[in-house]
């Protein structure tokens, strides 16, 4: 009996080793810190557990947080080459590779989270995912919140567009974000995400624009005194996968990935939206001076920025995607 038990244990060990050896490695990159207060990381951990459970370990998810695999351009290149299998990446870098994504940088489009989610989860988001796949070889499963973007700076309170004049503002690395800031009278300096805290600390720029999650997660509040709650853009993190890797999966593995992204997306959205809803309390507690923006002042921002940014987007990518987005928003309002 002992000999039989040993043989069975040995067989089980061999099976485990064989299973581990045949597991498909999925490198998953994101840019937030590796703790459960970070929506990206909490969602990534949920994805890991979900996929490995549904595939019985057939896919080995390895999470690389905090830019461990490189900056945004390196990660996107890795997705196209297949050296990185999956990533959650923010809008600016995506727009630099897939220009139509820049349509989402047109400011003051969405009235609330429900509207933004409905548009991106509907026909508009599906069409964009199909087009991105065809043009880049990167598969977009969906989007979660990167936070409603607000302006911060270390010079003065900003309550109206005139208060932006002369400020040096960091923007994401895509031209559309330059157009947004310059339409309000500030100067724009593109800076990649990993370099942003240093740029603020060293005074390379006076300010930046981001959601509450990123302001807190990267400790940007340490170098910024004022935050203006103008909510100019609903920013996104896209769940992206190398199509080469996706096509290497079995049908059941593909289904598991798609289902588990949905789980991750719900967690990610919920955490980020909760932080947005409590922006004033969270940032005040961090020592920032919160500048409320009234509906009348927000209208002033919209009238200054929206036409200029839309014109830039249309010039860059044509009118098709801006028109599609307008139609999707109109359809939501009509329901």
Question: Which structural traits does this protein have?
Answer:
single chain, 335 residues, alpha/beta, D-Maltodextrin-Binding Protein, domain 2, 14 helices
Describe the protein:
There is one protein chain. With 335 residues, the protein is of the alpha/beta class. The chain has a single domain (2-334), classed as Bacterial extracellular solute-binding protein, family 7 (D-Maltodextrin-Binding Protein, domain 2), CATH 3.40.190. The protein contains 14 helices and 9 strands. Strands 1, 2, 3, 4, 7, 8 and 9 form a 7-stranded mixed sheet that branches. A two-stranded parallel ribbon has the order 5-6. The longest helix is centred in the C-terminal third of the chain and has 27 residues, at 251-277. The model is unreliable at 7-20 (pLDDT under 50).
- The H-level CATH homologous superfamily, spelled out, is Bacterial extracellular solute-binding protein, family 7
Distance between the termini: 70 Å
Count of domain modules: 1
CATH class: Alpha Beta
Segments where pLDDT lies below 50 for 5+ residues? 7-20
Give the overall form: globular
Corresponding CATH architecture: 3-Layer(aba) Sandwich
Number of helices: 14
Rg value? 22 Å
Helix/strand class: alpha/beta
Order of helices and strands: HEHEHEHHHEEHEHEHEHHHEHH
How many distinct beta strands? 9
- Average of pLDDT: 93
- Percentage of β-strand residues: 15-25%
- CATH topology assignment: D-Maltodextrin-Binding Protein, domain 2
Provide the helix percentage.
40-55%
- Sheet bearing the most strands, described? 7 strands, mixed
